[in-house]
Amino acid sequence: MSTTQDLRTQIPEPTLTRFLFADTRLAPLWTLLRIWLGYEWLHAGWGKVTNPAGVWVGDKAGVAIEGFLKGSLAKTQGDHPDVSGWYASFIQNVALPNAELLSYMVAFGEVFVGIALILGLFTGIAAFFGGLMNANFLFAGTVSSNPIMLVAAFAIVLGWRIAGHYGLDRIALPMVGVPGAPGRLFRRVTPQAKPAL
């Protein structure tokens, strides 16, 4: 047996994980989880975008997130700080100087993640970015609903193949494709050979 064949060995997917994350019989369950998570994101983001004080989006953009970040920096003290030193450094050197931009990114990011999850459009990608926001909120010392939303996002990332089955992924993924398997829009069309005369 050659070395090339050894490197190409694939480990088969266990029956349980194939059932949980790839069997369309569980699509209704994944759809409910996906829509719930999407609603949570859309609700949170819409409140920020439409905030009448304009502290997230508008003429005072960045005020709310600056207050949140300064509150996070206050949680770095003591024997068991809620915010790690490395994340406090990120807040101090990256997030606070860009609070206005970050404010828009958070508000609109939450809305876009929520809409994508509710519609079931690029579900795995939307869940990944939602989970990334949850992780950042947790790193900043805010618990709230973030742990349960993070777990739901991780689950949807794992079950992306069927989480969007009852959604726009059913149309979009065959057209766009996935890494390593381009969809109809990105497949190369090979020219037909001309018949010999």
Automatic annotation (TrEMBL):
Membrane topology: Multi-pass membrane protein
Major localization class: membrane
Alphabetical keyword list: Membrane, Transmembrane, Transmembrane helix
InterPro entries to which the protein is assigned, alphabetical: DoxX
Subcellular location: Membrane
The keyword 4Fe-4S belongs to this UniProt entry's keyword annotation: no
GO cellular component: membrane
Pfam families reported for this sequence: DoxX
Source organism, top-level taxon: Bacteria
Membrane-traversing stretches: 111-131, 137-160
PANTHER family on file: DOXX FAMILY PROTEIN (PTHR39157:SF1), INTEGRAL MEMBRANE PROTEIN-RELATED (PTHR39157)
Name of the molecule in the record: DoxX family protein
